[in-house]
Amino acid sequence: MTDRINSFCVVLEHDYRDDDAESIKTALGMVKGVLSVEPNISNHSDYIAESRVRHELTKKLLGVIRPEKLIST
């Protein structure tokens, strides 16, 4: 028995202005079997999550490069 797929989530490389993303939305809508394409608006929660990930990666990289300069949490 095989699974049935009802949707895909497409993640963009970075945030786009809505008018610049229109061509991406149009292209996705042209894919066979696509019923609708709905954009997801960026918000402050996205910024917070990205900032935390950047901070954690910075700490890890700094720990590898210069262990004596670790950033405390």
Helix-strand sequence: HH
Taking pLDDT < 50 over at least 5 consecutive residues as the criterion, the unreliable ranges are none
**Helical segment tally?**
2
Mean pLDDT over all positions: 90
DSSP summary, beta strand count:
0
Query: What portion of residues is helical?
Result: 40-55%
**What Rg do the Cα atoms give?**
19 Å
Q: What is the number of independent domains? A: 2
Structural class: mainly alpha
Span from first to last CA?
48 Å
Strand content: under 5%
**So what's the oligomer here?**
single chain
Based on Cα principal axes, name the global outline: elongated
Largest sheet: none
Brief write-up:
This protein is an all-alpha fold and 73 residues long.
